[in-house]
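Quiz preparation item.
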């Protein structure tokens, strides 16, 4: 580390612009390893982001186990359990929590406690820093989803898709959702004024989005005006995309347009990805402005 290197306040200008790509990649891998160690050594973070969707699926699956199946056809076929219905919403929730919530709180805390100021005074590139954050989110989200699927299958007997095309659909929706939520988490980290207020600022936003986007409540149960508001935000589209993967096709009639509309899913997530990228570039600073 160079003691004479001046901190750079912007996201777009790193302190090692001339560093070779191999050096940046090595630093990024080290950053990912560090982020993963820090993540799993923080019990409250593990509980509220890693295990929370599994716990919520367990609660909903148990509480509504005695209810009739969802989407039963007139001939009595095609129904699924409430646990199976809630699974895609919990998948979307896991991506939201790992990306937007965890990252927004984490960066706000590091900024408030002076970690980012010290990092900005070192040769660490913003590219390496954010590769570390994004890589950790990708790894933890993948592990979280594997645990969620195993829990759904082993505890509630949920049948996962068998068609390869559905898993390919899941892959691009999940990857697009992870990138979008990661960029939005970076942008949202500029909102809290201190580490103490970070959780109070971010959690209500995350909870509200989950309630209006078809994660905790069936989207078809919401009034039309609330569905229209939810359609302005990315979680609704991420949850809808996941429902297209894990739910039978005839349940598309429960969506606002009575179709899965994957084109709109991709378009809206893509728009929010760009919004998150632009907002991150404009708002991120190594040092919080007074």
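Solution:
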């Amino acid at each position: 580390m160079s003691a004479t290197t001046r901190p750079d306040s912007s996201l777009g200008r790193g302190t090692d612009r001339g560093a070779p790509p191999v050096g940046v990649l090595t630093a990024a891998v080290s950053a990912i390893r560090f982020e993963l160690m820090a993540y799993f050594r923080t019990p409250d973070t593990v509980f509220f982001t890693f295990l929370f969707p599994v716990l919520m699926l367990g609660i909903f699956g148990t509480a509504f186990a005695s209810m009739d199946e969802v989407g039963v056809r007139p001939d009595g076929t095609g129904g699924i359990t409430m646990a199976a219905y809630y699974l895609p919403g919990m998948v979307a929730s896991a991506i939201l929590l790992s990306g937007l919530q965890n990252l927004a709180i984490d960066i706000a805390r590091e900024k408030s406690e002076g970690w980012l100021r010290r990092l900005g005074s070192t040769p660490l590139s913003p590219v390496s820093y954010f590769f570390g954050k994004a890589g950790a989110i990708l790894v933890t989200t993948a592990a979280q989803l594997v645990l969620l699927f195993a829990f759904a299958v082993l505890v509630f007997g949920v049948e996962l898709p068998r068609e390869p095309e559905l898993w390919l659909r899941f892959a691009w929706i999940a990857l697009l959702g992870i990138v979008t939520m990661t960029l939005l988490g970076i942008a949202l980290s500029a909102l809290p004024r201190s580490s103490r207020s970070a959780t109070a600022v971010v959690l209500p936003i995350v909870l509200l989005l989950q309630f209006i986007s078809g994660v905790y409540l069936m989207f078809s149960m919401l009034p039309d005006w609330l569905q229209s508001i939810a359609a302005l935000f990315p979680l609704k589209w991420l949850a809808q995309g996941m429902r297209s993967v894990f739910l039978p096709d005839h349940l598309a009639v429960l969506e606002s347009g009575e179709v899965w509309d994957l084109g709109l899913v991709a378009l809206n997530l893509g728009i929010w990805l760009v919004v998150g990228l632009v907002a991150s570039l404009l708002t991120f600073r190594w040092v919080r402005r007074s």
